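Query structure, 573 C-alpha cells:
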C-alpha cells in the first residue's frame, strides 16, 4: 500500500488543529501569502467556522489580529510562511504580551533537516519570540495517524492564550514538500459546532487578596482610585463592579479613557488638570492610591503615585515601575472588585471626596470655556469633540504619544463607547492596522492617531482601506512628532531634525492611493459634523485636521492658567 502524500497528511493534521481551535471559540484568522504555509492557508480558507482576513504583509496582519482580539477578547490566528515573515510579527507579539491580548501564531517552517543548511527562506524560528510568548512549541512533522498530537497542541495553545494573564502563543509548524494535497477540497475538515463557545471566566483572586485590600481601604479615608488600562472587551457588569468598589471606598475615581470607566457621574472629568495644578495637588496628597490595571500614562498620574502615602496595585501583569506598592496583587481587577460586597460597609461621603468633586466641576467648567473660545484647531479640543460625536456602541482606538494623553486630559465622561489603545508597549507602530482589526469586529470604529502614526503604518491603509472595512481616522496633522515639544529634548538644537522629524507628505494623496475617502477639517467647530457624516456613510475615511504646534502649546498654557485661576477663586478647590 502506498504511503499517503505529504500534502494529504499535512491537511489531515492541520484540520484537526483548526477544528479544535474553532470548537474552543476561535472565529478569525489573518494570513499573508507564502508557499510554506500552503496547508495552513487551505485548511483555514475551507473551514466553515473561520472568517479569513488576507493581508499582504505579516507586520500589518499581526496588528490587524491584535486589534480584533482586543475588541472581542478571543484569540485570533495569525499565519505566516517561513523566514523573515515570522520576524515581522515581533512588534505585535510584544504588544500582545504586555497588554494581555490573546493571539495564536501559526508559523510555517522547513523540516528539521533543512535548518542550518543555508536552505532558502530558512531562519531559526524555534522560540523566536522568547519570553513574549505564553507558550511556544516546535511541532513534529505531520504524520499519518498522529492527528491527535496536533489536536492536543490546539488545546494547549488555547489554554495558554486564554490563561491568566492572556497573551500570544507560538506554534512553529514544519511542513515537507509536496505542500499541495492530492485529494479533493471537500471533506478535509470537520464542521464547526453549532453551540457558541463562551470565553473562560477570569480566575478567582487569591483568597488573601480581598481581605488584605479591604483592610487597606478601611484604614484610610483620604484615598484615590486610579484606573489604568483594563481589558477593552469587558462587559458592563464587570466594569460596574470596579465603579462600585470606588463608590464604597468613598474615594474619587481617576479613570483613564482606556480603563472603560470614564463614565458619569462617578469618574472625574478634569482629573488630569487637577493633578497638573500645583496648588491643588499639594493640598490633596492622598494617604493611599489604589491603582487598578496598568501604570499611569501621564506624568501627572505618575507623580500622584509617587507622592501618595501608600500604593496598592491590582493588575494581572506587572504595573509598579516605581516599586513602592505596599500591596501588589497579581489579579484581575474586575474579578477582585466583584468579591468586595461583603467585606466592608460603604463609607459615607466625606469632606475629602466632596472637595475633589467640587474642584473637578470648577476645573471642568474652566477647561470647557477655554476650549470653546479657541479660534484655531487644537488637539485637546479635537479629542474632546471626537468622543462627544461618537455614536453609542462605538469603539475609539486612540494612538500612543500625544493622542492618548490629550484624550485623558480632555475627554468628558460619557457612556456607550469603549476606548482601546496599544498601551502594553505604548508604541505607535501598527496603529492603522490595529484600528482596522477593531473595525472588523463590527462596531462603529473611529481612530484618533497622529500623522506620524499614519505614515508609520501606511502599508496597512494601502492594503486594507478598499477591502470592505468601515473606519474613520481622525488625524491631527502637525507635520511631525509634537510630543517631543513637551520633553527635555526640546531645549536642544537637534530637537527638530532628529525628534520632531518634520515632513511635507500629503495625507490626501496617500488616502487616494489606498482608495480611502479624505477630507480636511480646518475649523475647530467642524469636526463633529465631519465625523458623523463619515461614520454614517461607511468605508474608510481620513479626516485630516491641520494643527499648529506653537498654537497648541499656547492653548495648553491657557487651559492650565484658566484651571489655576478657577481653583484659586473662593468657589474653587
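Result returned for the query:
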Amino acid at each position: 500500500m502506498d504511503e499517503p502524500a505529504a500534502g494529504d497528511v499535512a491537511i489531515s493534521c492541520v484540520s484537526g488543529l483548526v477544528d479544535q481551535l474553532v470548537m474552543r471559540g476561535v472565529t478569525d484568522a489573518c494570513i499573508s501569502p507564502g508557499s510554506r504555509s500552503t496547508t495552513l492557508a487551505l485548511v483555514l480558507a475551507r473551514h466553515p467556522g473561520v472568517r479569513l482576513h488576507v493581508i499582504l504583509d505579516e507586520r500589518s496582519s499581526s496588528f490587524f489580529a491584535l486589534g480584533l482580539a482586543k475588541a472581542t477578547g478571543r484569540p485570533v490566528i495569525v499565519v505566516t510562511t517561513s523566514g523573515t515573515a515570522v520576524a515581522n510579527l515581533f512588534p505585535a507579539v510584544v504588544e500582545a504580551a504586555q497588554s494581555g491580548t490573546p493571539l495564536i501564531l501559526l508559523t510555517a517552517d522547513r523540516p528539521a533537516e533543512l535548518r542550518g543548511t543555508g536552505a532558502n527562506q530558512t531562519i531559526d524560528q524555534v522560540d523566536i519570540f522568547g519570553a513574549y510568548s505564553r507558550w511556544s512549541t516546535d511541532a513534529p512533522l505531520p504524520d499519518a495517524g498522529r492527528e491527535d498530537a496536533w489536536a492536543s497542541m490546539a488545546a494547549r495553545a488555547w489554554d495558554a492564550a486564554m490563561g491568566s494573564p492572556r497573551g500570544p502563543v507560538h506554534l512553529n509548524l514544519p511542513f515537507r514538500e509536496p505542500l499541495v494535497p492530492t485529494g479533493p477540497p471537500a471533506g478535509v475538515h470537520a464542521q464547526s459546532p453549532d453551540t457558541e463557545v463562551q470565553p473562560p471566566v477570569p480566575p478567582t483572586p487569591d483568597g488573601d487578596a480581598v481581605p488584605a485590600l479591604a483592610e487597606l481601604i478601611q484604614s484610610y479615608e483620604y484615598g484615590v482610585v486610579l484606573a489604568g488600562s483594563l481589558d477593552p472587551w469587558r462587559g458592563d457588569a464587570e466594569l460596574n463592579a470596579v465603579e462600585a468598589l470606588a463608590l464604597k471606598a468613598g474615594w474619587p475615581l481617576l479613570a483613564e479613557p482606556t480603563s472603560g470607566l470614564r463614565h458619569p457621574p462617578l469618574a472625574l472629568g478634569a482629573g488630569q488638570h487637577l493633578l497638573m495644578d500645583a496648588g491643588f495637588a499639594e493640598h490633596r496628597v492622598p494617604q493611599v492610591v489604589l491603582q487598578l490595571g496598568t501604570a499611569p500614562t501621564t506624568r501627572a498620574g505618575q507623580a500622584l503615585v509617587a507622592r501618595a502615602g501608600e500604593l496598592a496595585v491590582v493588575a494581572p501583569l506587572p504595573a509598579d515601575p516605581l516599586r513602592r506598592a505596599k500591596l501588589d496583587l497579581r489579579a484581575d481587577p474586575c474579578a477582585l472588585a466583584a468579591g468586595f460586597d461583603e467585606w466592608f460597609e460603604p463609607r459615607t461621603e466625606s469632606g475629602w471626596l466632596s472637595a475633589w468633586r467640587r474642584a473637578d466641576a470648577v476645573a471642568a467648567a474652566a477647561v470647557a470655556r477655554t476650549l470653546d473660545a479657541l479660534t484655531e484647531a487644537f488637539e485637546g479640543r479635537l479629542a474632546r469633540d471626537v468622543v462627544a460625536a461618537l455614536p453609542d456602541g462605538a469603539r475609539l482606538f486612540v494612538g500612543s504619544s500625544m493622542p492618548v494623553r490629550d484624550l485623558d486630559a480632555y475627554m468628558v465622561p460619557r457612556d456607550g463607547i469603549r476606548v482601546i489603545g496599544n498601551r502594553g508597549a505604548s508604541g505607535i507602530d501598527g496603529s492603522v492596522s490595529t484600528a482596522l482589526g477593531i473595525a472588523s469586529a463590527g462596531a462603529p470604529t473611529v481612530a484618533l492617531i497622529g500623522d506620524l502614526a499614519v505614515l508609520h503604518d501606511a502599508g496597512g491603509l494601502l492594503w486594507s482601506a478598499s477591502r470592505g472595512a468601515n473606519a474613520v481616522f481622525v488625524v491631527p496633522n502637525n507635520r511631525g512628532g509634537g510630543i517631543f515639544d513637551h520633553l527635555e529634548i526640546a531645549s536642544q538644537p537637534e530637537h527638530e531634525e532628529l525628534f520632531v522629524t518634520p515632513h511635507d507628505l500629503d495625507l490626501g494623496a496617500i488616502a487616494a492611493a489606498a482608495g480611502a475617502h479624505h477630507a480636511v477639517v480646518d475649523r475647530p467647530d467642524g469636526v463633529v459634523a465631519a465625523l458623523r457624516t463619515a461614520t454614517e456613510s461607511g468605508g474608510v475615511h481620513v479626516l485630516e485636521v491641520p494643527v499648529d504646534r506653537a498654537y497648541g502649546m499656547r492653548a495648553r498654557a491657557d487651559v492650565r492658567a484658566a484651571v489655576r485661576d478657577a481653583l484659586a477663586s473662593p468657589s474653587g478647590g
